[in-house]
Design goal:
Length: 135
């Protein structure tokens, strides 16, 4: 359930946002320049990409937890090849689950001009404060 509810929620919300974006884009197509069309397309691509990345990277972890493991294999004594493979597999799916966050950050940096600007401003403020304190 910890995977299904967020996955369905993300999917439904993204589809709803995309439908609204396309609706408003068609209404303003006669009034506004093509700049907004590219922003709408960019937002749609970002939403769909982050949804698929979420499913790809977190799906195996939650599926494994729901179907295969009833207990945590970490911290147990590994006394067989099967237990070693189970622990290795669990390590891989946990790593994939964590990679989801890094990939989302990269996607937002690549596609979101406003996100890049805010991130840049945050770093500038952070480094300027540190430089001012050192004098």
């Amino acid at each position: 359930m910890t995977f299904l509810v967020p996955a369905v929620s993300v999917f439904v919300c993204n589809v709803s946002i995309i439908v609204k974006l396309l609706y408003f884009a068609s209404k303003r197509s006669n009034m506004v320049s093509k700049m907004y069309d590219s922003k709408t397309r960019s937002m749609t691509v970002l939403l769909m990409t982050t949804s698929f990345v979420y499913l790809i990277f977190t799906g195996p972890f939650y599926l494994t937890m729901a179907v295969v493991w009833k207990e945590d294999p970490f911290g147990q004594v590994i006394n067989s090849d099967e237990a070693a493979m189970d622990t290795l597999y669990m390590g891989i799916v946990v790593t994939l689950n964590r990679i989801n966050y890094a990939v989302n950050f990269v996607l937002y940096c690549l596609t979101g001009s406003q996100f890049r600007k805010l991130l840049s401003d945050s770093f500038k403020k952070c480094f300027l404060k540190k430089n001012d304190e050192s004098f």
